């Protein structure tokens, strides 16, 4: 798709005075509207959440980033297909066992994945008392700049703890406010209200949680948010909590896994999950006990959430309960990088999109017509331990048999040969775990043979170059101090913008209830390979459609 927009013309030029005025408008808006983070803290606890005394604005982009309208709309349209695709993956026990399991799949090589899978297997063989699962998903994309023009390419599909929905809505509102309130923005003809799409992500995500709560169907039950003790992105979560109460009259209980080890229990015969809060935290004269309808995990996606094996016991207790899990363990496993790779293998997408949704008892919608659209969003991916025919053929074609160690599997040899255009990914979430381009050969030298299976190779998406942005941070971040930019509040940098589309799906019995519910943009300097806002490498952003 050809786009006439000149990306290298972005952002509009500003005088130092204009830049300062714009920064003042943006940061003041952010602080006034809950576009916030907790500041870094030295006194961290492993159990109790912090009581905040101050907040800082989230890292933000002064201008929205240009994104082609056609690709933006295509990504939103595709979300429903992706929603259904991942519900089917989560229902296909045999597929997940083969790809993610500890007997036959990645769980052999990756301890964290293996532990989650074993926990799930144990539970599903004994006592599944809740057939419904809830997913709050985020499908992430970059624009690929190839000779034919720009195309939408998927980075990953998140099924657990998909964050920044609420804050992204506030960044879009901030950009709309700046547009309406300042005259500098006449600097570009693209900066018009028509090109700023609506962002209603908070209500969309809360609607997903409320649908699960309603399906559970017990008056007075509450939704449990499972959170990390040292979470700084609490306001993003709190906006969902406020929306649930204000629009749906549903109360939320926030607890860490450590707190839940004490407060959570299952009613023996029914597996109803109850949380008992001491009178101090429930503001009642007696300890109070609440039934939980839905468990929303904003923790338990990374090994550091489980500092001792007892934390897994708590996670599995929650899984065994009658509450609807967002996500359930199989749905969390379905979001693995290895699943993303496995779906690209011949026939797999057709298996999941075909007329046989009924096979998993979740409706029979035939989505095969979308197979090409979905596949068009994928980059090449393969497993490092692969000896599949297509990998061998690709290797032969490159005459790369001599490159790499003779004893290595074709997947690893192909990764060595194509390292300059690849990223390697383990089964992890939350950013900071990947290995890029020139770092790959040495990494492969150091990787233990038995760990190979835990990694996938993925072709790098080559994004449009020369597009710039103004990135604003509230506090110095030590993670990228090398360019000296962290001393300044505003940095002008060449940037890459990643679009995320949110969706929810409630499924497991009868037809899937699903919807596309919003979007976010994260923008990072091109010098950084990673894009995690929480990890401090990138800023929250919105789009100007071009
Ligand atoms: P995580 O689950 O940790 O967020 P991702 O797969 O999203 O892992 O990778 C982290 C970041 O690395 C992405 O946000 C993106 O900036 C970059 N990245 C990942 N895959 C690619 C790719 N194929 N091409 C270019 N950049 C990528
Ligand atoms: Mg990501
Ligand atoms: Mg992820």
From TrEMBL:
Keywords: ATP-binding, Glutathione biosynthesis, Ligase, Magnesium, Metal-binding, Nucleotide-binding. It is an enzyme of class 6 (ligase). Residues 222-334 form the Glutathione synthase substrate-binding domain. Gene3D superfamilies: 3.30.1490.50, 3.30.1490.80, ATP-grasp fold, B domain, Glutathione synthase, substrate-binding domain superfamily, eukaryotic, Glutathione Synthetase, Chain A, domain 3. Pathway: Sulfur metabolism; glutathione biosynthesis; glutathione from L-cysteine and L-glutamate: step 2/2. InterPro entries: Glutathione_synthase (IPR005615), Glutathione_synthase_a-hlx (IPR014042), Glutathione_synthase_C_euk (IPR014709), Glutathione_synthase_N_euk (IPR014049), GSH-S_sub-bd_sf (IPR037013), GSH_synth_subst-bd (IPR004887), PreATP-grasp_dom_sf (IPR016185). GO terms for molecular function: ATP binding; glutathione binding; glutathione synthase activity; magnesium ion binding. Binds 1 Mg(2+) ion per subunit. Mg(2+) binds at residues 156, 158, 429. SUPFAM superfamilies: Glutathione synthetase ATP-binding domain-like (SSF56059), PreATP-grasp domain (SSF52440). One of its GO terms (cellular component) is cytosol. Its cofactor is Mg(2+). ATP binds at residues 156, 337, 425-434, 436, 458-461, 498, 524, 530. Belongs to the eukaryotic GSH synthase family. This is Glutathione synthetase.
């Amino acid at each position: 798709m050809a786009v006439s927009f000149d990306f290298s013309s972005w952002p509009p030029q500003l005088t130092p005075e204009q830049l300062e005025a714009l920064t003042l408008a943006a940061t003041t808006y952010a602080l006034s509207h809950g576009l916030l983070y907790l500041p870094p803290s030295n006194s961290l606890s492993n159990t109790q959440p912090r009581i905040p005394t101050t907040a800082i604005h989230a890292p933000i982009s002064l201008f929205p980033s240009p994104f082609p309208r056609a690709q933006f709309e295509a990504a939103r349209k595709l979300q429903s297909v992706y929603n259904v695709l991942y519900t089917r993956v989560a229902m296909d026990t045999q597929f997940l066992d083969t790809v993610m399991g500890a007997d036959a799949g990645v769980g052999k090589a990756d301890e964290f994945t293996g532990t989650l899978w074993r926990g799930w297997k144990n539970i599903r063989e004994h006592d599944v008392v809740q057939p419904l699962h809830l997913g709050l998903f985020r499908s992430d994309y970059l624009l690929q700049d190839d000779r034919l023009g720009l195309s939408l390419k998927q980075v990953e599909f998140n099924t657990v703890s998909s964050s920044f929905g609420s804050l992204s809505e506030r960044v879009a509102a901030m950009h709309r406010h700046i547009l309406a309130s300042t005259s500098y923005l006449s600097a570009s003809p693209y900066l018009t209200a028509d090109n700023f799409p609506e962002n209603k992500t908070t209500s969309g995500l809360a609607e997903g949680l409320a649908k699960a709560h309603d399906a559970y169907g017990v008056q007075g039950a509450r939704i449990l948010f499972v959170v990390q003790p040292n979470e700084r992105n609490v306001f993003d979560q709190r906006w969902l909590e406020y929306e649930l109460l204000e629009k749906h009259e549903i109360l939320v209980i926030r607890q860490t896994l450590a707190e839940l080890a004490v407060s959570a229990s299952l009613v023996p015969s029914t597996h109803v999950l109850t949380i008992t809060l001491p009178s101090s935290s429930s503001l009642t004269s007696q300890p109070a006990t609440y039934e939980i309808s839905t468990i929303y995990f904003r923790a338990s996606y990374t090994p550091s959430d489980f500092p001792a094996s007892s934390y897994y016991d708590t996670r599995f207790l929650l899984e065994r309960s009658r509450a609807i899990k967002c996500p359930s363990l199989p749905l969390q496993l379905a979001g693995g990088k290895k699943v993303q790779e496995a779906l690209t293998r011949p026939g797999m997408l057709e298996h999941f999109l075909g007329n046989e949704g009924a096979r998993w008892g979740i409706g029979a919608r035939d989505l095969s017509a979308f197979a090409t659209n979905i596949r068009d969003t994928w980059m090449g991916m393969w497993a490092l331990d692969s000896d599949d025919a297509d990998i061998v053929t690709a290797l032969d074609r490159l005459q790369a048999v001599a490159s790499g160690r003779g004893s290595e599997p074709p997947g690893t040899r192909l990764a060595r040969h194509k390292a300059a255009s690849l990223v390697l990914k383990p089964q992890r979430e939350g950013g900071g775990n990947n290995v890029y381009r020139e770092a790959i050969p040495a990494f492969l030298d150091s990787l233990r043979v038995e760990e190979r299976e835990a990694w996938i190779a993925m072709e790098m998406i080559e994004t449009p170059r020369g597009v710039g942005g103004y990135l604003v941070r509230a506090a110095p971040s030590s993670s990228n101090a090398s360019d000296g930019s962290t001393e300044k509040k505003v940095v002008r940098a060449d940037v890459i913008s990643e679009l995320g589309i949110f969706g929810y799906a409630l499924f497991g019995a009868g037809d899937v209830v699903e919807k596309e519910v919003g979007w976010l943009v994260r923008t990072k300097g091109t010098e950084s390979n990673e894009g995690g806002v929480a990890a401090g490498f990138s800023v929250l952003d919105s789009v100007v459609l071009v």
